[in-house]
Amino acid sequence: MKTIKNIGLIIFLIGLAIFTALPVIGTYSLSSEQFSDFVDQKGIKSELFITDIEQNIVDKSFDGMLAFAPKVTKALENANDLHRKNKEYKKVIYTKPHDMAAELGKKAGSGFIVDNKGLMWFLTFGLGIIGALMFILPNVVLLGQKGIKNNGIYHENATNRGWIAWLVFIFLVSFYLILYFRSEYAVNWTYLVDPISQSLSGNLAGQWFVYGFMYCVVMVVMAIRMYIKYRHNMYQIVRTTSVLFFQIVFAFLIPEIMVRLQMPYYDFKNAFPLDYDFFFQWNLKSLLNSGGIGLFILVWGIVLTLIIVPVMVYFFGKRWYCSWVCGCGGLAETLGDPYRQHSSKSLFSWKVERWLIHGVLLFALVMTGFTLYGFFAETSTVLGIKVQSIMDTYSFLIGAVFAGVIGTGFYPIFGNRVWCRFGCPLAAYLGFVQRFKSRFRITTNGGQCISCGNCSTYCEQGIDVRAYAQKGENIVRSSCVGCGVCSAVCPRGVLKLENGPEQGRINPTQVLLGNDPDLMELVNNK
Q: Which pLDDT tens digit goes with each residue over 164-208?
């Protein structure tokens, strides 16, 4: 079995190596016909840009995106600078330079990768999936009988911030930086999934389709690992299946099919303010111009945020969303599970968590207020501040850097719920409701606790669960996402996730001071 695992690891690394090399290889040759069609399609009116591209790129061959992209970005920047200087605003091209390079690169791609998309998919995604499964599946035998395993996670390089973890960190951060800020280097990745994208939406793939497809593949493979590791706990099996279903069906398949049916691209499970651009002016105009389906999406988004979310949290806690539905939580619980022990339990981290996550929520609400005022008042500035600048700032700092680069890239170093714990505005909103008006709690049986510390070690939200268990206190922290892993790794059955009456939900242990406490009153109040 160990031999199979080692072979699987080699196969996986081969696929990963080819996938990693794709951004900097390939051949790009843009024909005059392709460029002419592109200009007409985009409605480009800048003669400067058109002339520059025709002189320096059209009908020439470039080896790799490193040679092709800089010429496009430079041509666009130079043309826009001159147009703005001459106040020729109708000729300004508002596409971002790197996105323009990606679009032209997609049309210009040629050679082996473009001509052999199926083979290249197999050599990257295919080998990655096969290798990963060969590495994971033998654990059914190697882990022995189902049950709790104290498997030395702090003795392994991969799970204790060793060199393997740092390599994973570098790969994840680099991957997200390309997705968000250098999309032209993802062009070769898009060719791999073009056939899948065309079968779903009818369009060629972009970098976000690559991300969505890769997201689902990674979750499925790592979910199999979850099934094996937690096969003694039915809650974990059902919960993992739930997040897989909502990610693959609601977040990936349905939006793509909606595009094919000429409907707005929309993820029906994505609630505001996690879906921070829902009330952006461009989105509101798009929905209102899309007829009945657009109006339905608008109403659904508002009802989901204001009614469904708090009602569900009241009955089931924030776990119904964060651990059963949310795509961010789904990736954290599958890909991020090996790193959950890195979530800091210090008092300092808890203080940072409270200020940061509520600060992001406030930022999101203020930004949305400005956006809605600008939309209804038909103005681009509010209190002398450009609404677009606020939206761009939030999109960059929170939507890209925090939620993407840090939120996922930092899994191997700071744990799997960095975004959910410190940044997600929806988690902050859910947490308010869960803490003060919810039936959910994790009950503890202090008499059974042996202080092994498994629960605290594996708490991805940085809660010192053992401290509650030792005192027999219910856990009602607003940050708890109800993943249930603390209960799954407890060898004594001390912890239990429950939805009960509000009365008695918060039961802090009272410290008896003085010589005359009324013990009967304390017992009756319990």
A: 999 999 999 999 999 999 999 999 999 999 999 999 999 999 999
pLDDT in tens, 320-344: 999 999 999 999 999 999 999 999 9
Number of Cβ within 10 Å of residue 340's Cβ equals 22
Cβ–Cβ under 8 Å, residues 455 and 489: yes
**pLDDT of 311 strictly over 50:** yes
> What's the token pair of residue 224?
């199999």
Kindly tell me if the per-residue pLDDT of 523 is higher than 70.
no
Helix (H) or strand (E) holding 495: strand 495-499
Percent of the chain with pLDDT over 90: 85
For residue 221 the two structure tokens come to 């493979």
In contact, 216 and 97? CB cutoff 8 Å: no
Encoding tokens for residue 277? 């651009």
Closest CA to 154 of 1, 338, 423, 354: 338
How confident is the model over 232-256, as a mean pLDDT? Answer: 96
DSSP string, 413-430: HH-TTHHHHHT-HHHHHH
**Backbone CA torsion sign across 152, 154, 160, 162:** negative
Instruction: Kindly give, in sequence order, each residue whose CB lies less than 8 Å from that of residue 7, ignoring residues fewer than 6 positions away.
Output: 134
Sequence-separated (6 or more) residues with CB below 8 Å from residue 232: 146, 147, 148, 488
Judged against a pLDDT cut of 50, whether residue 512 lies above it is answered with no
The pLDDT assigned to 514 comes to: 46
Helix 207-229 / helix 127-136 crossing angle, nearest 10 deg: 10
Q: Which two tokens stand for residue 399?
A: 């939507």
Residue 383: strand, helix, or coil: coil
Say if residues 131 and 11 touch (Cβ distance below 8 Å): yes
ω into 517 cis (within 30 of 0): no
Q: Residues with Cβ < 8 Å from 111, sequence gap 6 or more?
A: 26, 27
Question: What is the torsion angle, in degrees rounded to the nearest 10, for the CA atoms of residue 468, residue 472, residue 476 and residue 478?
Answer: 0
∠ Cα 100 197 29 (to 5°)? 40
Q: How confident is the model at residue 516 (pLDDT cuts 50, 70, 90)?
A: low
d(CA 386, CA 390): 7
